[in-house]
Design brief:
This protein is an alpha+beta fold and 367 residues long. Helices cover 39% and strands 12% of the residues. Strands 1, 4, 5, 6 and 7 form a five-stranded mixed β-sheet that branches. A three-stranded antiparallel β-sheet has the order 3-2-8, with no helix packed on it. The N and C termini lie far apart (64 Å).
Length: 367
């Protein structure tokens, strides 16, 4: 193995790293529906769409959603012309629904202010809804071959090991961003960014990195020191708090389910929900909470809990169910202006977040 110190004394180690990684990428790159072969001009719309969907979401999960969106809206103009409700329905199940609303708002801005052509610089991209520093750098590099350095979890891990960075995340983020920027070549920066992502996803993995097949093994300081599996260090995360609530699943005798539009701001804004109590920390709501049900009925508690994990808290929901007449009157607590009845056969096409689909499935599981 060529020692790191020797590599630093001879030639251009940074250039050698980028060349070795690009050679590996040309042979081993993942075949993904938003990817383009080296030397092929990328479609900025596809690059942007994939990057928004991939935020906090796995490649495997994203692929069918990406393909569905392209079938529904092949161009940014088509997406901009869609109703927000249609976009939310197509996004349903992908999570982090603010992304969907920002996606739609961004498409409209690109059409209205940029004539349907995405801006190519990081600074301009950062002015668009839903685009932060990472996404702006990724689009600039991958779509326009600008010398920009997106740094995601994979790239942080590769960089921390390559330079044996001992500082723990998240405090190490600026250091890792600077080191990754040093590695980014002027030629093929988009391919280099994707190569770093692929290396982290397939070779330099969080546990048991496959160093023997890594194109950067000889330049990796962590490997030379035998600490590659330990890095990057991370500060311990605090436990997620637990919030609890009750969901009221009202089903009419002719097969409709009561849904309600959530408020315009906050978590799951403007999405549909099963009418529920507030989600609060502490003890679960007691039986008196039934007094706030959306319909006066004979409510019974479905055994078990629905558990769902959000980014910042864990949710535990008790589900109460009632069968009500088709002409049932809604209570004050229902906020009837935001409610509507939806046929069970049409639920799959509604803009329901995953947690609400869990609640409905739990409440109907005895049927």
């Amino acid at each position: 193995m060529v020692k790191v110190a020797l590599a630093q004394q001879c030639g251009d180690p940074v250039g050698d790293i980028s060349d070795s990684l690009l050679d590996w990428y040309d042979r081993e790159r993942r075949d993904l529906p938003w990817r383009y072969a080296p030397g092929t001009e990328a479609d900025p719309y596809r690059v942007w769409l994939s990057e928004i969907m991939l935020q906090q979401t796995t490649v495997k999960t994203v692929i069918p959603y990406f393909e569905r969106f392209l079938k529904l809206w092949p161009t940014v103009e088509g997406l901009a012309a869609a109703d927000e409700e249609e976009v939310l329905q197509a996004w349903s199940g992908l999570g982090y629904y603010t992304r969907a609303r920002n996606l739609h708002a961004c498409a409209r801005r690109v059409v209205e202010e940029f004539g349907g052509a995405f801006p190519r610089t990081e600074a301009e991209l950062l002015t668009l809804p839903g685009i932060g520093p990472y996404t702006a750098a990724a689009i600039a590099a991958i779509a326009f071959d600008e010398r920009a350095t997106p740094v995601d979890g994979n790239i942080e891990r590769v960089t921390a090991r390559l330079f044996a960075v001992r500082e723990a995340l998240p405090n190490a983020k600026p250091t890792l961003r600077g080191l990754a920027g040093r590695l980014t070549p002027a030629d093929r920066p988009g391919d280099f960014a994707q190569a770093m992502m692929d290396l982290g996803a397939t070779v330099c993995t969080p546990k048991r990195p496959s160093c023997l097949v890594c194109p950067l093994m000889d330049a990796c300081e962590a490997h030379a020191l035998g600490v590659e599996a330990e890095l990057p260090y991370r500060d311990a995360k605090p436990d997620r708090p637990v919030r609890r609530g009750i969901a009221f699943l009202a089903v009419t005798d002719d097969g409709n389910v009561l849904l309600r539009r959530r408020p315009d701001t906050g978590l799951l804004a403007r999405m549909l929900e099963v009418p529920s109590t507030e989600w609060v920390e502490g003890a679960a709501p007691d039986g008196d909470a039934v007094k706030t049900a959306p319909v006066r009925a004979d409510w019974w508690q479905v055994p078990g809990l629905v558990v769902h994990t959000f980014t910042h808290f864990r949710l535990e929901i008790e589900v109460y169910r009632a069968v009500v007449p088709a002409n049932a009157t809604l209570t004050f607590w229902a906020d009837s202006a935001r409610c509507r009845w939806v046929a069970r056969g049409r639920l799959a096409g509604e803009a329901l977040p995953t947690v609400m689909r869990k609640i409905i499935a739990h409440g109907l599981k005895s049927d």
